[in-house]
Amino acid sequence: MIPLPPREIAPGAVHVPGWLTLDEQRHLVDACRAWAQGPVPIRHTVLPRGGVMSVQTVCVGWHWQPYRYTRLAHDVNGRQVADFPGWLADLGRRALSDAYGPAARAESADGGSTTSQQYEPAAYGPNAYEPDTYEPDTALINFYDGEAKMGMHQDKDEKSDAPVVSLSIGDACLFRFGNPETRGRPYTDVRLASGDLFVFGGPSRFAYHGVPKVYPGTGDPATGLTSGRLNLTMRVTGLR
């Protein structure tokens, strides 16, 4: 299948279908399985008012708990999460380069070459980030089973406005990407499939977003994930 070209969903928010190779997806699945075992294991996060998230989460680099980052997982077992690996930071920089770099080349249906003019990634004022200076230091890995969902929320616990790099593996999902002001409309629904990249920064860095639905049975078992969806998001905490 020929991957679709990158598409800017909102200013600074870019969807790159089929970005990860199958080998890269398998590597990430293996890494996520190892992180899920600890030192701070994967868990259903308990929210301050007693609610329990339907997704399961494990972190690397920094531990996220509602609504802050800590070095020690006081809400789980008191241990420090696994280190953020250099190879993952390299992947994040490549993702930023491919999402915000020159317009991507795509193969046309007849085998010819076309240049995508659907978006023109810009230097978004003070929020601009050069890929080679991007230094993500934490990743949240969420596992969705067939019933899990994620309500509309902002990623705003970081002290940095550097872009968020999001990778999807396994079952496809309906990803709802909104605006920075409200959980409601306007928003755009995007189907994220296994291997897709989604980057949001600049004016869309603090846009509300969520996952209303996962489509069970749509993933490729060749990734090493036989069911469910993995979503890995890299962020820059701005913490020391």
Mind explaining what this structure looks like?
- The chain is 12% helix and 30% strand.
- The protein has a seven-stranded antiparallel sheet, with helices on one face.
- It has one domain (7-106, 118-235): Jelly Rolls (Sandwich), CATH 2.60.120.
- It is an alpha+beta fold.
- The termini are far apart.
- The radius of gyration is 17 Å and the shape is globular.
- The protein is built from two helices and 15 strands.
- Fe cation binds at residues 153, 155, 209.
Give structural attributes:
globular; four-stranded antiparallel β-sheet; seven-stranded antiparallel β-sheet; alpha+beta; 12% helix; Jelly Rolls; 240 residues; 30% strand; 15 strands
**Largest beta-sheet characterization:** 7 strands, antiparallel
Distance between the termini: 44 Å
Beta-strand segment tally: 15
Oligomer: single chain
CATH architecture: Sandwich
Query: Helices and strands, in N-to-C order?
Result: EEHEEEHEEEEEEEEEE
Report the principal-axis shape. Answer: globular
Helix and strand content put the structural class at alpha+beta
Helix content: 10-25%
Please compute the radius of gyration using only Cα atoms: 17 Å
Fold topology:
Blueprint: E1 7-10, E2 13-16, H1 22-36, E3 56-60, E4 63-65, E5 68-70, H2 86-100, E6 105-107, E7 113-115, E8 138-144, E9 150-153, E10 164-170, E11 172-177, E12 188-192, E13 197-200, E14 209-215, E15 229-235
Antiparallel strand pairs: 1-2, 2-13, 3-8, 4-5, 6-7, 8-15, 9-14, 10-13, 10-15, 11-12, 11-14
GO biological process, one term: methylation
GO molecular function, one term: broad specificity oxidative DNA demethylase activity
Cofactor: Fe(2+)
